[in-house]
Amino acid sequence: MIINNIINLFLPKLCGACSIPTLQATDQLCLVCETQLIWKSKPNKTKISKALRGRVEIEKGVFFIDFTKKEGIQKVLHSIKYQNQKKLAVFIAEQMARKLGFYFFKNIDVLIPVPLHPEKQKIRGYNQASLIAQGINNVFSLPVNTTTLTRAQFTESQTTKNRLDRWKNVQGAFELKNIEVLNKKHVLLLDDVFTTGATLEACIKTLQKGIDCKCSILTLVRV
User: Fold this and answer.
1) In angstroms, rounded to a whole number, what is the distance separating the alpha carbons of residues 152 and 222?
2) Of 168, 194, 223, 220, which Cα lies nearest the Cα of 58?
């Protein structure tokens, strides 16, 4: 700890949200950003369900941080997705799990990160949704399944697409393998961002078409 703090004095660890130096080398956020993004965050348990109403059936849908109300979250998302900030993703997921608490997760059987296409994951080096699953697993030891729901198509980025084009872009993008392991299970799908819900809708439709399972959704952010 002392050595890390000495290193941090000369080569400071920067906050993943605002880029100012953190107090300790092991910190992922500065105290101000941690307070604003984590401790003052109020997980929303209604907006995702309303957004997907009439599209797919889910048990519950929750996002941790509202993009429009929190400064710094855009840089956090960019750092997690494109700058190899794996520890930051795991840290925020751990805090999210603790804040939601045992009762949110008590009926969940398995965590499923929204999969990337193997080529895209090879380029990026990791799947940020899997890091979220790792953080939750660190707190509640829930099993993580990354093999049953797979991405069969290399789709374009959803970032610049409108609602309709997002929906078209992910049609047929996912497929199932070894489906018996999820039969009669309550699945919690995990992703970094909920925007229009097109990707998560496609995942749920793929799961529920092939398996008798319940589905819920948890994301770090809603945009």
Assistant:
1) 25
2) 194
- What CA–CA distance (Å, rounded) separates 9 from 18? 18
Residue 178, pLDDT score? 85
**How many CB atoms within 10 Å of residue 52?**
19
Q: pLDDT tens digit string along 148-170? A: 999 886 565 656 555 556 656 66
CA 218 to chain centre: 7
d(CA 176, CA 133): 19
Which residue, 155, 174, 41, is CA-closest to 115? Answer: 174
Q: What is the CATH number of the domain that holds 60?
A: 3.40.50
* Residue 75, domain extent: 43-222
Evaluate whether residue 30 is within a structural domain: no
* 113 domain residue, yes or no: yes
For the chain, helix (H) and strand (E) counts, in that order, are 10, 6
Q: To which residue do tokens 């092939």 refer?
A: 210
Q: Which residues contact 138 (CB under 8 A, 6 or more apart)?
A: 90, 94, 97
Q: Which long-range contacts (CB under 8 A, 24 or more apart) does 122-130 make?
A: 124/81, 124/82, 125/84, 126/84, 126/86, 128/80, 128/81, 128/89, 128/192, 129/190, 129/191, 129/192
| DSSP E strand boundaries for the chain | 61-66, 110-113, 149-151, 174-176, 186-194, 214-222
The pLDDT tens digits of the residues spanning 12-36 come to: 889 999 999 998 888 999 999 999 9
**Burial class of residue 169, CB neighbours in 10 A (0-12, 13-18, 19+):** middle
